[in-house]
Amino acid sequence: MENTLKSLYNQTPLFESKPLSKLSGKKILLKMECLQPTGSFKIRGIGQLCQELIKKGYHQLVSSSGGNAGYAVAYAGKKLGIPVTVFVPKTTHPIFLNYLALEGAEIKIHGDVWDEAHQAAMEFVIKTHSGYVPPFDHPSIWAGHSTMIDEVIQQGEKPDAVIAAVGGGGLLCGVLEGLERHGWQDVSVFSVETAGAASFAASIKAGKLITLERIHTVATSLGAKRVANRLFEWSQKRLITPLIVSDYAAVSACRKFVDDHRVLVEPACGAALSVIYDSNKINAFSEIKSILVIVCGGVGISIDLLNQYTAQLQNTT
Ligand SMILES: *Cc1c(COP(=O)(O)O)cnc(C)c1O
User: Fold this and answer.
1) 42 in contact with ligand 1, CB cutoff 6 A
2) Which of 177, 154, 240 is nearest to 44 (CA)?
3) If you placed Cys at 217, which of 52, 95, 179, 196 could pair as Cys (CB 3.0 to 4.6 Å)?
């Protein structure tokens, strides 16, 4: 494949948010992963894994994610000239089906819940000898995500702390790998989950990996019942402080971020931003003067959907 060495991701802007710095009394740096061609950081790691699978000789790629991970596989496959099949449950939001179709991916709608779509995907992988691309649990994905920290260093900033949202933990594993590679073990790390998807916080508390029975959150990109084992291992090796925010806080942060920076992100990303917008949460950062927020992005949002979430959550709080 002649173009396997081409980078599939963008170097993203890093800048200080003056509105958020003023609000929090700290220097808030934003790593704008929402400006990746696929609208989220996922293309970094997933692009890298797709390239490796092609080098290994796979002629077809398969994903079972009806979210930003599936979209990243579809995008990478199209760029690299290899067919992609994505298995998704019936509940997949049309926004994602649209983006998958735009990349020419074959979409197979299977079952009512993700587990059923995933099961069908695994059978298909075995039958067709395809390369399976998981959403977060793979060393190549972590290595790919870690390039965002390489960029922060090139861009000339060293924060006291990093805040990143956690779903399955692929993003945070990448951040931790990047910090370690550059000897930045002294940078404090904060993970953020919404209350209905806090599998990592539960695992830290229990001292072992916890599998949630169910997920209930509008931050659908954080909806992993169990985080990667690798993330749990990191938490045993270095301090990671898990934060939990409400769906309402995550959605409110999305709205405020539109006003402050004219950029629309998913509630999954709003969750990370909400820590800065919430004066109670920011008090936990007393000694910390500068914070890097990974603006992870996500395409699963629109003005209508944001308004819908806001109305829905106002009624429940
Ligand atoms: C996937 C995703 C996350 C969570 O990433 P994990 O690697 O699963 O922890 C957060 N935000 C957005 C927008 C995502 O697409």
Assistant:
1) yes
2) 177
3) 196
